[in-house]
Amino acid sequence: MSREQDDLMRRGIGMTSQRTRERLIQRLYEEGLSNARVLETIRRTPRHLFVDEALAHRAYEDTALPIGHNQTISQPYMVARMTELLLAAGPLDKVLEIGTGSGYQTAILAQLVERVFSVERIQVLQDKAKERLAVLNLRNVVFRWGDGWEGWPALAPYNGIIVTAAAADVPQALLEQLAPGGRLVIPVGAGDVQQLMLIIREEQGFTRHVLDAVRFVPLLSGPLA
After folding, report:
1. In the Cβ-directed half-sphere of 133, how many Cα atoms lie within 13 Å?
2. What is the dihedral of CA 4, 5, 10, 13, to 10 degrees?
3. Residues near 134 by Cβ (< 8 Å), separated by ≥ 6?
4. The pLDDT of residue 35
5. I need a labelling partner for 213 at 20 to 30 A (CA). Which of 76, 137, 178, 186 fits?
6. How high is the pLDDT of residue 16?
7. How do strand 71-73 and strand 65-68 relate by DSSP bridges?
8. Are 56 and 46 within 8 A, CB to CB?
């Protein structure tokens, strides 16, 4: 690929133009999202690279889109909302992401925190995500193919953990891998009854905040090649 082609791919054309991105950012702001760093990161990150070419014209709509294997790329609002919650107490240097998926949430995090450790059970999705992040020259992400319910205990503890699929219950392993003062953002529930939760590890146990009603694909166990 030539440098000119690479630049075009990053910037996008037509429905992936900068003007289209600006409309998305304005919508997110109007919906109550206010972290300037998060919004700027979403503005400059080419979401069209993270969806199939046939869906590129919809990349900057505020909606979830299919990425194959019964998985989706989360809507930009939810990506921004969860990222804001994760960063609300200040900068983070070590974040665990459960569910690499397309790599879009990973890319947003990689530009806002020092290090991202991302676990994905579907190997083909994670391989594609690695390629996309390499194109964007995001080098502070380490990937693991495995079971998200188990987290990544070998590298724990983490200052922040973000889960991009809904767990029926909060995985105990993730609570154990959260550093003191760390924040866990996770959708919890089954079927259509899910709630976004913020869990903070205190000196004595955990503080749990139930936030928005959400809808995510389920967090499944076991790696899948």
Report:
1. 26
2. 100
3. none
4. 96
5. 178
6. 57
7. antiparallel
8. no
Phi-psi sector, 89: left (phi>0), alpha (psi -120 to 50), beta:
alpha
Instruction: Determine the Cα–Cα distance for residues 119 and 26; give it in Å rounded to an integer.
Output: 31
Task: Tell me the average confidence (pLDDT) per consecutive run of 10 residues in the chain, 225 residues long.
Answer: 48 62 94 96 95 91 93 96 96 96 98 98 96 96 96 97 96 97 96 93 95 92 72
Give the H or E element holding residue 37.
Answer: helix 36-44
Give 101-161 as a DSSP string.
TTSHHHHHHHTTSS-EEEEESBHHHHHHHHHHHHHTT---EEEEES-GGG--GGG--EEEE
Q: What is the Cα–Cα distance from 103 to 163, expressed in whole angstroms?
A: 13
Among residues 159, 152, 39, 47, the alpha carbon closest in space to that of 105 is found at 47
Whole-number Å distance between alpha carbons of 154 and 176: 12
Please tell me the predicted confidence (pLDDT) of residue 46.
94
**Whole-number Å distance between alpha carbons of 84 and 37:** 9
Maximum Cα interatomic distance, the chain, rounded to a whole number of Å: 56
**Of 159, 164, 149, 170, which Cα lies nearest the Cα of 223?**
149
Q: How far apart are CA 2 and CA 116, in angstroms?
A: 29
pTM of this prediction exceeds 0.85: yes
Residue 20: predicted pLDDT: 87
76: nearest Cα among 119, 96, 47: 47
* 185 touches 85 (CB < 8 A): yes
Fill in the amino acid letter for 221.
S
The catalytically annotated residue of 74, 102, 118, 221 is 74
